[in-house]
Amino acid sequence: MFTSNPFAELSASIAPSVMQTYIVVMIILVALGTIYDVLHKKSARYFRANMQKSRAAGTKVGGGEMISMAIKTAVVDVAASGEFCNPRRRVAHLLTMYGFIAFAVTTAIMVFRYPTPDIATPAILVQLWWLGAAMVCVGGYWFWFFIRADVAAEGSSPFRIIRADLFILSLLASATLALVWAFLQARGHAWATPAFWLHVLATTLLFGSVPWSKFAHMFFKPAAAFEKRISAANGTRSNLPAPADQPEIFGSVDHRPGNY
Fold first, then answer.
1. Quick one: CA torsion of 169, 175, 177, 183, rounded to 10 degrees?
2. Residue 33 lies inside a defined structural domain of this protein
3. pLDDT per residue as tens digits for the range 173-232
4. pTM above the 0.90 mark?
5. 51, 102, 126, 176: which sits with the fewest CB atoms below 10 Å from its CB?
C-alpha cells in the first residue's frame, strides 16, 4: 500500500490526461482566485502604498540590507513560521504547511510523471504522499480541536463553523479522503470509488474557493512580514508588532509572552 502509486492504479478507469487536466485547472483556479482576492481586497495597492510611505518617511535602507531582510523573511517568517508565539500553534502550522506541500507536489509528480502502472513509481514518492497527507491531518485536526482560540480560550464548540474555516476544513477533507481512498483502493474495496469522488469534491472546493477562504493568505503573509522588517529597519514601525526574530524591548524589560 505504501509503495503503490494510487493514481497509476486509477488510470485503469480514468485516463491520465483527465487527471492531468484536472490538476492544471486547479492551478489556474488558485491563480485566478488569488488575483481576484488581491484586486478585491486591494492588498497589492496597500502594500505598495505603505512601502512607498515608509521609504519617504524613514531612513534609507541599503540594497544589501534589503536582501538580508528578504532572506530572514523567507527563513524565519515563512519556513519556520516565526510569527507564532505559541509553540503548539507553530508546530501544528508547520505540520500542516509542510504536509500540504509534500502532498500536493508528490500528487503532481505521480500524475504527470508516473501516470500508469507501466512506468514504475519510486517508492519514496508514494511514501512522501502518504506522509504529507498524514501530516496535514495531524496538524490540521490538532489545530481544529485543541488549539483554535475560540475553542481553547473561549470554550466554543469545535464543531462551530464559520466562513473563515472553509480553507482548513476543505484541506482536511481533501487529505483525509485521499488517505481513505488510497487505503480502500489498495484492498480492492467497493467504497474506494465513492471515497475518490468525495476527495475530488473536497479538493475542488479547496482550490476553487480561494476568493472566499484564507488560501491566499499564504501569499500575503510573506509580503506583510517583509514590510514589517522594512518598517523596523527604517524607523517607521511606530506601534506595529516587531518582526518575529526581533522581540519588543521596552526599557530593560522583555515584554514577550512567557517572560513575566
1. -160
2. yes
3. 999 999 999 999 999 999 999 999 999 999 999 999 988 887 777 767 777 777 777 777
4. no
5. 51
